[in-house]
Structures are given as structure tokens and as C-alpha cells.
């Protein structure tokens, strides 16, 4: 489909200033999340609740993102991406800050639910901003740059959290809340229009989901998004740690190294995959990512020693890194610069979040009944189905 005309705020092929501002904010957000993620279940457990209840503070965040996506998409279409982005960041900052002062388990649960709504607001509006301010020829690069900032923050955050462990459970939440509030303030100042500077492109007419649903490539993109959420998000953070704990004597450490290897594999790949998506096209990169993710998801189930686990995890990260910028660029191509695609973006995000939520349940049940190799094989099968759908229905959208 047509991607619309070039917008005035994107001179040539330079990355617009707005994207760099979003990248900086993304790094701070991810850094802070990496700071609190390892201690959040432990903090919840300190109130004397069960392990399942302690884990629920993680799930409730994802559930809120899933439930909030349709509303956030409509708000982006109606009010514009910049105010929704700033509102979402402010909600995350406030709700996370007050976790530091929680006096009961239900308060943590409620605050993380609120934070999930804020998260989906700034995530969708950031994607919408990337669509609006980037020229079609650099969409892959811009998406890869934004994803890299989140990834690097997620890698560095846990290391910083370990260094600050002496502060206890509460202080990291206050630190994260203040940092996100500072990021929101910086974005608000640096993206406001000043006399003599190029303004953000005005809001565009809304693109209806019923219209884009007629595009076969969008349906194929939803299949790829669900698969990415299922295999590279849900399975990675649920089945892989359980597998490592069952196979290795020091399963926690092995799982940590495997997750880091995945992140590093993805981070390295993002340095060139966005440019490849812009130069070679979106379709081959999505196909290569699905194929790579599927092959190494299956092989992970046969890793019985440390180095194969780490190497295969890094290779799986490469698959995710190949696919991520190309899927985002395809989505932006379909929406184009001349329309607002908040609900179109939210539908894609909901599909990906659904995969991430469903994977721990389905794969956990398969692993319990038939073993971990069978669970990893199911991940590979999901990738294979998505690859077939993509090759049949997915068309090249690169302008």
C-alpha cells in the first residue's frame, strides 16, 4: 500500500530529532524497569502472600496493557500521539513511585495495574510518533534504534539493580518513578514547537481497523506479532528459566546468562537489521526472523550443557532482531504518513501481548505433561505456521 508523501520534518534520510528524544526516554524507561523487575515479585512476597500471588504482580501489568490497548489507540487517534505519550509516562512514573510506599500486597497489585495502562499509552503513542515523523526510507532504521534503546536499558538495568541492592526493596521504585518523571519532562520540553522550528506533523484522519483488515499483509503481520509475543517474549521469560532450573545445577545463573545472551544477540542484530529492512525490503527480514526463531526455539530443548544453551539463546535473539524492525516498518508502511493509526497499532500490540500472556500457560502445561523438548517444539511449530502465513499472505510494503 502507499505510505503517503514525505513529511517536512524529515529532511532527506536523517533521523528526526523527535526520534532521538524518544530513544533517550526509552533507554531511561527500560533501565528503570530492569532495576525493579528482579525485585518486584520478592517485594510482593514480603507481604506473606503465595508464590502465585507474588508472580501475579508481573501478570497484572501485562493484563492491563492488553485491556488498555483499544482505549489507548482511540485516544491517540482523537487527541494525538504527543499528549498521550506524556500522559502515559506520567502515569507510569506516579504509580511506580508510590509502590515504594505500599503497605499491603493489594496496593502493589493495584499500582502495577495502573502502570500497565500508562505503559500501553506511551508505547502506542511512541509507535504512532515514529510513523508520523519518519520518512518511509528510514522507518526500519528508526524502529531498530528505538528497539535498541529499550534492549540496552533492559540489559544494563539488572546490573544497576544488583549494584543498588543494598538499598532494599523500596528505594528502586522511588528512583524509577523519579527517573521516568524526568524523562517525561524532557520529552515534553524537547518536542514542543518553538518559533522558527519545524513542528510535529499535524494529526491525520483516523484509519479504521475494518479498512486495514482487508489488507492480507496486515493479517499476516498479526500472525507474526502473535508469534513474536508467544516465542520471543512469553516462552523466553517463562519456560526457559524453568528448563534451566531442571537441567542445570545452578539453574538461576544459567537462565540469567541465557536471557542476557538472547538480549545481546538481538541488540547486535538490530544494528544492521533496520537498515536491511529499508534496503532489501520488509518481507525477507520478517521471513528470516520467523525461520531463525523457530529453528533455534526447537534446538533450545536439546541444550544439556551451559555453552550450547547460551549460544542457542543468542541465536534465538538474532531471529527476534531480524524480525522486529521489519514488522514495525511494515505496520508503518500500511498506515502511512497521511493517516492516524492508533487503533491499527493497538490491535497489533494486543495480538503480540496475547501471545506473551498465552505462552506461559500453554507451554507450561505442555512441559508438565510431555517435557521441555515438547514445549520448545510447540514454539517452533507456532513459528512455522506464522512463516507459512507470512509467505502466502504477506506482501512487500517497502515504498
Question: What does the overall shape look like?
Answer: globular
| CATH topology grouping of the largest domain | Growth Hormone, Chain: A
Radius of gyration: 20 Å
Structural class determined from secondary elements: mainly alpha
CATH superfamily of the largest domain, please? MFS general substrate transporter like domains
Mean pLDDT across all amino acids = 84
In DSSP terms (H or I, runs of 4 or more residues), the helix count works out at 14
- Quaternary structure classification: single chain
State the end-to-end CA separation: 8 Å
Question: How would you summarize this macromolecular structure in one to three sentences?
Answer:
The chain has 399 residues and is mainly α. It contains 14 helices and no strands. The protein has helices spanning 17-36, 40-45, 51-79, 81-99, 105-133, 139-163, 171-190, 209-212, 216-247, 251-279, 282-300, 306-335, 342-370, 372-393.
Amino acid at each position: 500500500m502507499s505510505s503517503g508523501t514525505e513529511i517536512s520534518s524529515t529532511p532527506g534520510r536523517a533521523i528526526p530529532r523527535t526520534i532521538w528524544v524518544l530513544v533517550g526516554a526509552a533507554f531511561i524507561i527500560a533501565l528503570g524497569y530492569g532495576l525493579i523487575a528482579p525485585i518486584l515479585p520478592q517485594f510482593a512476597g514480603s507481604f506473606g502472600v503465595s508464590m502465585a500471588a507474588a508472580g501475579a504482580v508481573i501478570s497484572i501489568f501485562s493484563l492491563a496493557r492488553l485491556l488498555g490497548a483499544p482505549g489507548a489507540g482511540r485516544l491517540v487517534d482523537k487527541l494525538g500521539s504527543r499528549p498521550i505519550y506524556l500522559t502515559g509516562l506520567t502515569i507510569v512514573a506516579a504509580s511506580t513511585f508510590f509502590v515504594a510506599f505500599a503497605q499491603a500486597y493489594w496496593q502493589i497489585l493495584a499500582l502495577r495495574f495502573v502502570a500497565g495502562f500508562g505503559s500501553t499509552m506511551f508505547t502506542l503513542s511512541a509507535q504512532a510518533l515514529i510513523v508520523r515523523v519518519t520518512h518511509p526510507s528510514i522507518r526500519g532504521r528508526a524502529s531498530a534504534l528505538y528497539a535498541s534503546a529499550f534492549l540496552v536499558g533492559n540489559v544494563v538495568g539488572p546490573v544497576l539493580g544488583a549494584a543498588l541492592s543494598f538499598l532494599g526493596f523500596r528505594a528502586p521504585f522511588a528512583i524509577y518513578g523519579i527517573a521516568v518523571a524526568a524523562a517525561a519532562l524532557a520529552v515534553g520540553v524537547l518536542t514542543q514547537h518553538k518559533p522558527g522550528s519545524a513542528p510535529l506533523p499535524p494529526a491525520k484522519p483516523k484509519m479504521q481497523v475494518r479498512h486495514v483488515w482487508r489488507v492480507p499483509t496486515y493479517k499476516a503481520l498479526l500472525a507474526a506479532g502473535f508469534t513474536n509475543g508467544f516465542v520471543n517474549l512469553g516462552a523466553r521469560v517463562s519456560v526457559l528459566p524453568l528448563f534451566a532450573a531442571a537441567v542445570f545445577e545452578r539453574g538461576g545463573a544459567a537462565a540469567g546468562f541465557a536471557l542476557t545472551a538472547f538480549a545481546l544477540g538481538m541488540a547486535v542484530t538490530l544494528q544492521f537489521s533496520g537498515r536491511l529492512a529499508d534496503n532489501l525490503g520488509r518481507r525477507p527480514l520478517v521471513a528470516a526472523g520467523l525461520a531463525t526463531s523457530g529453528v533455534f526455539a526447537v534446538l533450545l530443548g536439546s541444550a544439556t550443557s551451559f555453552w550450547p544453551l547460551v549460544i542457542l539463546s543468542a541465536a534465538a535473539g538474532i531471529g527476534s532482531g531480524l524480525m522486529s524492525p521489519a514488522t514495525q516498518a511494515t505496520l508503518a508502511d500500511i498506515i502511512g504518513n497521511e493517516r492516524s493509526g492508533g487503533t491499527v497499532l493497538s490491535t497489533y500490540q494486543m495480538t503480540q501481548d496475547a501471545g506473551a500472556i498465552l505462552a506461559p500457560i500453554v507451554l507450561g502445561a505442555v512441559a508438565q505433561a510431555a517435557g521441555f523438548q515438547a514445549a520448545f517444539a510447540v514454539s517452533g511449530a507456532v513459528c512455522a505456521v506464522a512463516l507459512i502465513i507470512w509467505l502466502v499472505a504477506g506482501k512487500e510494503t517497502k515504498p
